[in-house]
Q: What sequence folds into this?
């Protein structure tokens, strides 16, 4: 039976969903799913991995791997490859995975299909489908040359299998020779905003120049508090006027967002702004001016004063979402 | 030969030798800057070059663009030209005692004397004003300069030495013809009243003559290491100037197999003409005064840039002269920073103001090229623009499929349809990305279509086949990406055999008109304001409906300073019934940029105050309800400025085409 080695990504004791997707895929293909995991306090993580269907877990624990580091994790992963001799390696195409996978591929001297949306494990072989030309076309790639075959896979691209509560995986410990490392991560300092970044949020509530001042953004904050997984953004005009820091700016020169729901409050919808949010799934625009270009791209438009509309929306969402 | 003559000869030879040594270093440095000569051929069209030499060097036309300082310069410049005759005469006198130009005839000589006397006083008054300007008025652009004070002191010293010499000479050797030197005559009266004897006067005259000799020679030796070097370099720089205003960016040969670097990363990447530019700068500060970046507290000053490039040239003297270009240090450093280079809006106000025709913008854009092509070093916002142009063929991430969506319901035909039907059109309407995708600019596109239809002119668009001209990438240094887009567009245009193009975007206009000929297409490109002006002139459209508004006109840089078109939009506005035009002071070639040029449209403005707000404030001085513009980016920037000033209900920004569309039936 072919062995598939999977990189597990976890945060604060929780395994990320994409890891589950990769395990399920390996199991569906009838391969032996071996999961590599590194970090500190991994007991809960190991248990969760077992329930997700992992057959074996190779865990590297300790202070030296407390924080993710490309060098240390890469070295450990290569050790895991040597001990398990897998035919396929799967790594999530997340920020961490995208950072780690090329290093591992280089260390092993093997090929890598990055950012795949579909994979097919067939015995010891691997076929992968990956978007090219910014998503305008897809390429099917097959591996030749030395094994293992590596791919990074986009989150949400594969389906997760049912979890099996109580199941557990055999855990093997892996230790790291810290002496050989050229760098260690001492601490990870979070950005000043502990809140959700606009690019990560599922729902974005944005304000424009019509907010008039920074204090008024409080009404958008209130709306955002009610909506799960949401963040507050701003148009360039609002940022220029000093209502919000630049890190909140949505648009051509700011952040490009594509949330499920985008609520534009008092934003006229200049092309510079549209360029940053027009791919949002549902756009709701609130503006006094019925001629505002934002209504051209909006799925739902509310012509009215945002200072009246937004508090009403907040109240209604509160009721609806309990 | 008398001993004094021999001593003099030795001094002259010594000083000349020293001068020649210093000058030869400058010459060799200029020869050592062997980068790609983007300045093009500078020895063609000799007749025009001689003409510009006469008008701008001898007759000081460009210098006189600034009235007071210009007149001051003319006085000193012409004074020196005239007085050099006397200087030469005195040199000859020192070598061959008794020599005099009096052999040209008594009255001619007297006239020469009178003219020299007059110009001595003119130079003195010029220098007096220069002192007053530097020490009392202290205009910001001049800055503090010890160099300038030394030069002014030397100049006034020379004139005073001449007056003193003449006045003592008059006393030592009285002669009726001396009366023409009225000022010297008057001074000699003072000496006489003080009881100076002719013998003493004779010694004093000789003393001041020698003093003058030494000052002249000292000045000569000082010049090559001072900003006063312009007395030697301004004339050749004017002669070798770019003769016409419109220009495009140099096409980089990206295929060159021997190229190890693109753009200007080091001073040695520049050309001899650029080095001459650096030598020609006399730090008058006109460029800095005109610069929108400097005037909104950005770190860019064109004057400082030229000065700092000159420093870089001198700092790398040894490496350059020994041909070790590997050892030449990068241009970017503590003085010329990334922020300096990215602050430029490419408005060319600096070049337009420069009295000695320095080409500042070319250097900035070659430096950008090096940063982007060699080091991938550019503001983060540009990454998005590059990506969008690459994937979507527009700086905004708009779908190329929707490029012609604005034409829905307008019955605008595409070149493909025209070609299929076997018909011909007169014009290709190049819509541009803004005109295709930006809701505000789409209205301008529609207004132009409406005007073209009223006039009966046959036109078509490229529709989905049109792509960004690559200009935003080119001005941002990404020559590679720009060339890809240009070539694709050129192929499409050639395929349809397009000859005449009209466009409402000045940036597209300049690219198509002045740059695409390097890519294998010759086009007759006309800006929509030029076409509309022509349609009105020929009576094809008639603005008959009154537009009861007060309007002020904002010149876009790429139609104005880049292509010298100031009249077409103004004649259009003048032809609209009841429309009143209030011009502001900062118009035409003195107009200020909106802040969006040079790819600044796509970058954040983190430093200083906003250019668009400053420009809006100038335009609001006209107290007009409408600001007329001719560029989609100007319209965006000025509309934003008006929003910032919270005057949206009082002032609107309109394209000239929209006004005309309103005024015609």
A:
């Amino acid at each position: 039976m072919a062995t598939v080695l999977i990189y597990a990504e976890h945060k604060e004791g929780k395994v990320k969903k994409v890891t589950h997707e990769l395990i399920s895929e390996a199991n569906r293909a009838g391969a032996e799913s071996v999961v590599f995991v590194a970090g500190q306090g991994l007991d809960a993580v190991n248990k969760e991995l077992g329930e997700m269907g992992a057959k074996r877990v190779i865990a590297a624990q300790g202070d030296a791997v407390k924080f993710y580091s490309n060098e240390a994790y890469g070295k450990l992963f290569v050790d895991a490859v040597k001990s398990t001799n897998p035919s396929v390696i799967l790594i999530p195409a997340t920020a961490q995975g995208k950072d780690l996978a090329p290093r591992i591929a280089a260390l092993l001297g093997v090929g890598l299909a990055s950012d795949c949306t579909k994979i097919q494990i067939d015995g010891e072989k691997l076929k992968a489908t990956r978007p090219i030309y910014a998503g305008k076309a897809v390429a099917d790639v097959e591996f030749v040359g030395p094994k293992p075959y590596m791919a990074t896979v986009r989150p949400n691209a594969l389906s997760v299998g049912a979890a099996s509560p109580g199941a557990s995986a055999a855990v093997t410990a892996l230790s790291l020779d810290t002496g050989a490392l050229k760098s260690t991560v001492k601490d990870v300092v979070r950005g000043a905003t502990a809140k959700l970044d606009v690019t990560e949020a599922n729902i974005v509530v944005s304000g424009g120049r019509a907010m008039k001042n920074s204090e008024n953004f409080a009404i958008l904050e209130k709306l955002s508090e009610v909506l799960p997984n949401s963040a507050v953004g701003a148009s360039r005009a609002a940022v220029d006027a000093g209502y919000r820091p630049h890190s909140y700016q949505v648009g051509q020169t700011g952040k490009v967002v594509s949330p499920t729901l985008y609520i534009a409050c008092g934003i006229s919808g200049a092309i510079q702004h549209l360029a940053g949010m027009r791919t949002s799934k549902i756009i709701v625009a609130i503006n006094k001016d019925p001629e505002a270009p934002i209504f051209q791209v909006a799925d739902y438009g509310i012509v009215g004063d945002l200072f009246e509309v937004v508090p009403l929306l907040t109240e209604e969402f509160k009721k609806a979402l309990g | 030969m008398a001993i004094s003559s021999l001593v003099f000869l030795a001094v002259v030879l010594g000083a000349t030798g020293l001068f020649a040594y210093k000058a030869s270093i400058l010459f060799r440095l200029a020869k050592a800057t062997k980068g790609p000569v983007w300045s093009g051929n500078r020895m063609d069209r000799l007749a025009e070059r001689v003409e510009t030499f006469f008008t701008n060097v001898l007759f000081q036309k460009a210098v006189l663009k600034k009235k007071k300082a210009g007149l001051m310069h003319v006085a000193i410049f012409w004074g020196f030209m005239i007085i050099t005759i006397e200087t030469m005469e005195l040199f000859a006198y020192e070598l061959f005692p008794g020599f005099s130009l009096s052999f040209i005839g008594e009255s001619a000589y007297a006239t020469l004397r009178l003219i020299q006397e007059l110009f001595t006083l003119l130079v003195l008054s010029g220098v007096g004003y220069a002192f007053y300007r530097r020490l009392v008025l202290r205009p910001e652009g001049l800055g503090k300069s010890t160099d300038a004070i030394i030069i002014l002191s030397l100049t006034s010293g020379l004139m005073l030495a001449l007056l003193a010499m003449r006045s003592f000479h008059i006393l030592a050797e009285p002669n009726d013809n001396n009366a023409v030197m009225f000022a010297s005559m008057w001074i000699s009266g003072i000496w006489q009243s003080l009881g100076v004897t002719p013998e003493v006067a004779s010694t004093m005259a000789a003393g001041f003559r020698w003093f003058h000799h030494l000052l002249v020679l000292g000045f000569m030796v000082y010049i090559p290491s001072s900003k006063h070097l312009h007395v030697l370099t301004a004339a050749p720089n004017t002669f070798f100037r770019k003769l016409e205003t419109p220009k495009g960016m140099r096409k980089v040969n990206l295929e060159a197999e021997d190229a190890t670097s693109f753009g200007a990363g080091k001073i040695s990447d520049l050309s001899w003409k650029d080095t001459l530019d650096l030598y020609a700068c006399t730090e008058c500060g006109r460029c800095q005064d005109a610069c929108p970046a400097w005037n909104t507290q950005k770190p860019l000053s064109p004057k400082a840039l030229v000065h700092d490039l000159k420093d870089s040239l001198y700092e790398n003297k040894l490496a350059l002269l020994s041909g070790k270009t590997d050892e030449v240090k990068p241009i970017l450093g503590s003085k010329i920073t990334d922020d300096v280079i990215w602050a430029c809006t490419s408005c060319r106000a600096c070049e337009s103001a420069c009295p000695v025709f320095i080409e500042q913008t070319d250097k900035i854009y070659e430096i950008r090229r090096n940063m982007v092509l060699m080091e991938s070093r550019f503001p983060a916002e540009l990454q998005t623009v590059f990506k969008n142009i690459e994937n979507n063929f527009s700086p905004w991430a708009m779908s190329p499929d929707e490029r012609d969506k604005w034409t829905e319901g307008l019955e605008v035909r595409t070149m493909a349809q025209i070609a299929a039907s076997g018909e011909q059109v007169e014009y290709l309407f190049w819509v541009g990305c803004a005109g295709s995708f930006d809701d505000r600019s789409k209205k301008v596109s529609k207004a132009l279509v409406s005007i073209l239809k009223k006039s009966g002119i046959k036109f078509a668009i490229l529709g989905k086949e049109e792509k960004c001209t690559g200009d935003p990438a080119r001005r941002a240094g990404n020559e590679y990406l720009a060339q890809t887009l240009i070539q694709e567009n050129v192929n499409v245009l050639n395929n349809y055999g397009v000859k005449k193009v009209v466009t409402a975007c000045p940036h597209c206009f300049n690219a198509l008109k002045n740059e695409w000929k390097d890519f294998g297409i010759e086009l007759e490109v006309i800006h929509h304001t030029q076409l509309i002006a022509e349609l009105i002139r020929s009576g094809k459209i008639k603005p008959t409906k009154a537009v009861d508004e007060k309007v002020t006109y904002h010149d876009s840089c790429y139609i104005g300073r880049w292509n010298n078109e100031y009249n077409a939009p103004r004649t259009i506005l003048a032809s609209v019934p009841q429309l009143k035009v209030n011009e502001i002071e900062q118009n035409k070639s003195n107009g200020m940029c909106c802040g969006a040029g040079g790819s600044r449209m796509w970058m954040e403005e983190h430093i200083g105050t906003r250019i668009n707000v400053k420009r809006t404030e100038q335009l609001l001085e006209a107290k007009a309800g409408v600001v007329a513009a001719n560029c989609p980016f100007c319209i965006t920037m000025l509309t934003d400025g008006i929003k910032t000033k919270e005057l949206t209900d009082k002032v609107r920004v309109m394209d000239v085409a929209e006004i005309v569309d309103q005024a015609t039936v």
